[in-house]
Amino acid sequence: MKKDFNYYMSLNYPVEISVIPEDEGGGYLASIPLLPGCMTDGETVEEAYTNLQDAKREWIIDMLDRGLPINEPNMKPHFSGRFVVRVPKTLHRLLAEESEREGISLNQFVNNSLAFVVGQKLAH
Q: Range of 98's domain?
């Protein structure tokens, strides 16, 4: 496959999104660690992610124009133990309320719930 603009844009680069503290302006910072300097921000996670796609496009164009190498993501599956799931606000609220009732973190509650459901499926 020819490694041109479309090739690099089609690659599934890992993205990092973090909260920008309110005293620093608030919002969210989005970056692609494999593409040094490829970062942007937004008022919401969705806006930061959308803006990052524009930044990625410009970053790749710049690197290709300058004839510089472009990192590629590891094409083998990598399971870091971390992933982001978007849920409806009502489900988020229900999960948070249930985790509070059980006296555990939302993260632990969701982890326990996923393990239970997957375990049930594997048992059948």
A: 89-123
